[in-house]
């Protein structure tokens, strides 16, 4: 069995001299405020993206229990954290506790991990065995080629997502391999997640009309993970509804028919 892919951090640095916003929180709420902040950091850094979904009542109770405070006291502490900038106010409106600092640290760590997995050839799904990994020829090779051909059908969705991301003014660099990987994610969304091509297109449009989520989605894998976790359900649109031209899947023609036509054309040219 392969090792599960590690997510989050096992530990995080804690400065010996705190920033002014942390001292402001402690001045307002004493040790209870500081203890809650540490418990929040521990919970957030444990996740892949540094976010705690805070909409459910049980989530609020768990965090309050860890800090050994009441829900009312916790609400007061969170209000102060929002005021002094220890929490992302826009994310909180969407029921998520996080901060820009946590996101940046985890984003950097995740990029390093992804690079290492690619270098070592260990990019496997969490908890899945390494079966079929060495099959580069025969039946295994044919399956990979077939999947790659299927992925081409979903290139329009990949191009739509790339366009939407670029419209946000991001300076991210895109490679052709990114589109191939994204198309594979969209294929899995149809085959495994049982979503339709049109549902995916509509969800992409909805995400990039939402002031919060349009800044968070930077890849098809993140888009899929957020959707499957329920975070993209019932999105609030911050822009007027538009009616974009529908995107149709690419229908691949028979390659042998194309080769036959080209040969016939060459023969005709040779006789002229």
Layout of helices and strands:
Elements: H1 20-45, E1 52-53, H2 57-67, H3 71-84, H4 89-93, E2 96-97, H5 100-120, H6 138-151, H7 155-167, H8 176-191, H9 197-207, H10 220-228, H11 255-271
Antiparallel strand pairs: 1-2
Helix pairs in contact: 1-2, 1-3, 6-8, 7-8, 7-9
Protein model, in words:
- By secondary structure, the chain is an all-alpha fold.
- The protein has 2 domains: 1-128, no CATH class; 136-253, no CATH class.
- It has 11 helices and 2 strands.
- It has a two-stranded antiparallel ribbon with strand order 1-2.
- α1 (20-45) packs across α2, α1 packs across α3 (71-84) and α7 (155-167) crosses α8 (176-191).
- The relative contact order is 0.08.
Summarize the structure.
The protein is an all-alpha fold. The chain has 11 helices and 2 strands; from the N terminus they run αβαααβααααααα.
